[in-house]
């Protein structure tokens, strides 16, 4: 039983011994290596000497539900020719997928190393953080940024990633991200409305792929069991498989396998709302302190009021699940410091290197704004 739980906590009990070892190595790589090394390991193609990720490679890097293809790995790539000029994939559709999680629109959707870093920052950030950056870059108040301003943001984010060896030498026509934002010739401008739509699409698609990776035992792939959502949450929080067992045991006792009532199943829409709530953790913490004294355990009624106050009312079954996971002594209260720490970690994709935290990525954008202002004052 314990070994079965271990296999389930790792996400797949069907791997061979060798595959399990490779999966464990790739998980350590995601957790402990620099973004540069992760990019070089999971990227699979090289065009004219420049390394790129395919969309499938990016999914493997951040979701972690599939192994790297045989024969490809660290600094091992397939040399390919550039896509035909007529190919013009839309980045919003790059991570669209069918009900099994297979990407359906990924051809020629090449991702450069700066794109990779920027996408990680977007996956981990709240909309208001980028909205602030856009407003600071918007000199004339028309709500748009151009290609050069955006590249400044990318370079600033790239500088926060330690151990970087990848140079930003990819031509514009090979970056599907830049082509979506600024057109093939780089002359279009980007407003926040379109960027916010892109960020919402990216966060939703990647979360849905993570969702599908944890509900493969369900006949209805639009729902997930409390146990499956707990595994997803703990994995995204980067809690080790060994340390997950205490949390999983409480959930399994509350919602035994094979006895999950239909009313306890959680839809993807509810899951998506929950992870949007996680990106508002700071606001939730502030609201929480209005309803209860600092250092005192969080009661369910205070949790529900604070979540509603920040715009994310939680269904009762999700609140009940959260309290089942984190109420370690069964007194009906959550330990605030432990809960908020795990929630902050879990709002990111499964892969979020320590050297590229949300705070550092956003600070890099602020530094880019300052550099822009300094350049303007010196000119």
How would you summarize this macromolecular structure in one to three sentences?
The protein is mainly alpha-helical and about 375 residues long.
Structure write-up:
The protein has helices spanning 2-9, 17-32, 35-42, 55-62, 91-94, 113-124, 127-137, 147-159, 176-182, 192-213, 226-236, 241-254, 268-278, 281-291, 300-309, 316-326, 336-346, 358-378, and strands spanning 45-47, 50-52, 78-79, 144-145, 190-191, 223-224, 266-267, 298-299, 333-334. Helix 12 packs across helix 16. The protein has 379 residues and is mainly alpha-helical. It is globular, with a radius of gyration of 21 Å. The relative contact order is 0.13.
Low-confidence stretches: 1-12
Number of strands: 9
For the residues shown, what is the average pLDDT? 79
**Helical amount:** 55-70%
Radius of gyration over all CA atoms, rounded: 21 Å
Structural class: mainly alpha
What would you call the shape?
A: globular
Side-by-side strand order of the widest sheet? 2-1-3
Taking the sheet with the most strands, its summary is:
3 strands, mixed
Note the run of SSEs as H and E: HHHEEHEHHHEHHEHEHHEHHEHHEHH
Strand content: 5-15%
Query: Distance between termini?
Result: 69 Å
Q: Total helix count?
A: 18
């Amino acid at each position: 039983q314990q070994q079965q739980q271990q296999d389930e906590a790792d996400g797949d009990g069907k791997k061979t011994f060798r595959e399990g070892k490779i999966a464990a190595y790739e998980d350590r790589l995601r957790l402990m290596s620099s973004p540069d090394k992760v990019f070089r390991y999971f990227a699979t193609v090289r065009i004219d000497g420049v390394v790129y990720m395919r969309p499938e490679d990016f999914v493997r890097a951040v979701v972690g539900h599939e192994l790297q293809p045989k024969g490809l790995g660290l600094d091992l790539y397939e040399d390919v020719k550039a896509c035909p000029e007529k190919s013009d994939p839309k980045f919003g559709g790059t991570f669209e997928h069918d009900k099994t999680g297979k990407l359906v629109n990924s051809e020629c959707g090449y991702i450069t190393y700066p794109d990779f870093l920027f996408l990680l920052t977007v996956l981990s950030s709240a909309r208001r953080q980028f909205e602030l950056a856009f407003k600071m870059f918007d000199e004339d108040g028309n709500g748009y940024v151009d290609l050069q301003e955006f590249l400044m943001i990318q370079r600033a984010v790239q500088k926060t990633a330690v151990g970087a060896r990848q140079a930003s030498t990819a031509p514009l026509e090979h970056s599907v991200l830049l082509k979506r934002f600024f057109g093939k010739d780089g002359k279009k401008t980007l407003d926040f409305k379109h960027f916010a739509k892109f960020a919402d699409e990216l966060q939703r698609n990647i979360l849905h792929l993570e969702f599908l990776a944890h509900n493969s035992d369900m006949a209805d792939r639009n729902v997930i069991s409390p146990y499956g959502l707990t595994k997803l949450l703990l994995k995204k929080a980067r809690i080790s498989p060994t340390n997950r067992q205490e949390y999983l045991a409480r959930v399994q006792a509350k919602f035994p396998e094979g006895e999950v009532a239909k009313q306890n199943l959680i839809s993807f829409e509810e899951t998506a709302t929950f992870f949007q709530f996680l990106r508002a953790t700071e606001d939730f913490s502030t609201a929480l302190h209005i309803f209860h004294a600092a250092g005192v355990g969080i009661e369910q009624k205070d949790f529900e009021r604070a979540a509603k106050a920040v715009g994310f009312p939680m269904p009762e079954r999700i609140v009940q699940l959260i309290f089942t996971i984190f109420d370690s002594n069964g007194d009906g209260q959550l330990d605030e410091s432990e809960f908020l720490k795990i929630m902050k970690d879990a709002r990111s994709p499964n892969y979020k290197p320590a050297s590229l935290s949300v705070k550092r990525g956003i600070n890099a954008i602020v530094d880019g704004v300052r550099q822009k202002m300094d350049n303007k004052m010196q000119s």
